[in-house]
Amino acid sequence: MRVVIQENYEKMCKWAADYIAAKIKAHNEGPEAGRPFILGLPTGSSPIGVYQELVRMNQAGELSFSNVVTFNMDEYLGLPKTHDQSYWYFMHDNFFDHLVDMKPENINILNGMTDDPEGECKAYEEKIASYGGIDLFMGGIGVDGHIAFNEPYTSLASRTGVRNLTTDTRIVNGRFFDNDPEKVPAQALSVGVGTVTDSKEVLVLINGHNKARALAATVEGGVSQKWTCSALQLHNGAIIACDEAACGELTVDTYKYFLDIEKKERL
After folding, report:
1. Distances in whole angstroms, Cα of residue 18 to Cα of each of 25, 214, 253
2. What is the CATH code of the structural domain delimited by 2-266?
């Protein structure tokens, strides 16, 4: 596992955006340029700064998304895409609508209004497989370490499916629903932990003091369904990009180790 510690949120987002851009460019200039680059994407507050920087690059002509296919992590079950809290709306409002060359047909987001949730999830997995899997999956984690909507005790081998949301998650997300947790949908469609870890690379963003315990569990704790983020320890291409504020629960030795390793990476 690689842990990249940046001074603050803005620098973390810039590092992550630069990394993603470099991967897309390398793909398009390499032997696999004939197929699209497959990018997994999250919602939430953590990736907004990354999206803003990727949009800036795209509008400045520094990065093209014409050969990129995206798959989003999750969507609320029962929310239409026009709802301002649907993840379809979030992604278009914060990212897709601002890209100059993103092809609409290359955007994949689970349908929260489907009449067949299980069939929708099965088809999503099959479509990812049809492209040969995800090249790079960017994600974030919750304060309890959940990836996408894979709450604590979700199987680490799980695939895309219907997830019941915990009371804690609905309370946290209630701030987007008039501060009323009861307005937060009780279920969501979500990629599985196994779906994420099947990706060639996983880049997880962790920022803020409230994520410090989750970062420590991800990096230093044992692999456990209690912390679904801990599955990243088993992934050979896992990268954590974090800010200083999120490092408060790491041991000093761990913190210094990753700073030292990354310093040597830059030399």
Report:
1. 10, 25, 28
2. 3.40.50.1360
DSSP one-letter string for 191-244: --HHHHHTSSEEEEEE-SGGGHHHHHHHHTS--BTTBGGGGGGG-TTEEEEEEG
pLDDT in tens, 202-222: 999 999 999 999 999 999 999
Q: What integer best gives the mean pLDDT of the chain? A: 95
Q: Contact at 8 Å (CB) between 95 and 53?
A: no
CA distance linking residue 74 with residue 72, whole number of Å = 6
For residue range 17-31, list pLDDT tens digits in order. Answer: 999 999 999 999 999
Q: How far apart (Å, rounded) are the C-alpha atoms in residues 51 and 17?
A: 8
How would you class 93 by CB atoms within 10 Å of its CB: exposed for 0-12, middle for 13-18, buried for 19 or more?
exposed
Locate the domains of the chain by residue range.
Answer: 2-266
Catalytically active residues are 74, 144, 146, 151
